[in-house]
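Regression check, heme C case 278:
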Amino acid sequence: MTRINRREALCAAFAGAGALLAANPSRAVALALPNPDDPAMVDGVEAWKYVEIDPQSVANQAYDDYHIGHCMHTVFKAIVDHVAAALEKSDPLAARTMRAFPFHMFHYGASGGNGIGSLCGALNGALAAINLFVSNEKTRKAISTDLIRFYERTLLPEYEPADSDGKPFPKTISNSVLCHISSGKWCELAQVKSGSPERSERCTRLAADVARKTAELLNLNLAGLNAADVAPVVTFKPTEPTATCVACHDKGGDTGNIIGKMTCTECHSDKTPDHHEK
Ligand code: HEC
Ligand code: HEC
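Current build output:
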């Protein structure tokens, strides 16, 4: 197989036609094929290069641009745009390729996937970005799990927009990654409807929080703290009883009859093995 370098693979993987032609008009057609072996890696190097970005600036963009394509779109784009801007001088082709990403595809994540209230779109966009930039599976999963637990267990939203009037903004611990549960709990606390501007503002701030946290985790990973052979930086450890439920019920467990690591007791009563026997 002919080996191609990272630049060529970057072009080949996902670049828009404009970027391809600008890069190398004569080879544009040949390079327009994705690397079938592993589009994430080229000669042991991440094809989609991550560089350090400013988490607060990422959060600000996610907040400011939320109206363009909602939660998933804004989180993913804020992260990729920042990486592209950081690469502008050292690797303009990589920067241009990132800017040519078909971001519009992430409109689907709004309101938990086409409005069905499933996985929170902010998380969905963040997980997509983590998967774009981190090719090592173990590391990717460690970062993703930490982000998910942050989302479930933190009093959110934390983000304060620059023009905020300083009034306290309602915050909830979602205990769930589902848009349905997460937004529903917040609406109940805030005493507003799900179609209200207040609920939109909450999700805009939440998207900023998730974007910031993701940039922080990716920066830590870049600093080598999450390398495959080093214990991942895990801030949020598994909690009980979910960890015990998962050990039996999830894939690979003795019972092994479900797939999932969401907080079980959000929907099921606290079923210890003893309860099961009754
Ligand atoms: C030691 C292993 C073990 C642990 C720990 C465990 N379960 Fe189970 N669970 C079982 C087995 C075995 C069954 C019966 C499976 C069957 O009937 O096919 C069961 C059944 C269930 C069922 C089916 C309905 C019912 O009442 O029988 C639910 C729901 C469930 N478990 C949830 C949980 C939750 C939530 C936790 C954690 C709080 C948990 N389980 C912890 C082994 C376990
Ligand atoms: C968002 C709500 C929700 C969460 C979170 C959730 N479940 Fe469930 N679970 C359900 C529903 C709904 C069903 C299907 C209805 C039923 O069988 O009662 C189900 C079914 C199950 C069953 C099969 C029950 C049966 O009758 O055989 C098991 C076992 C189970 N869940 C365990 C878990 C464990 C363990 C966790 C945590 C890792 C978990 N669930 C998290 C909602 C949830």
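Comparison notes: Residues 1-34 have pLDDT under 50 and may be disordered. The pocket of heme C (ligand 1) is lined by residues 241, 244-245, 248-249, 254-255, 257, 264, 268, 270-271, 273, 276 (CB under 6 Å). No diff flagged against the previous build.
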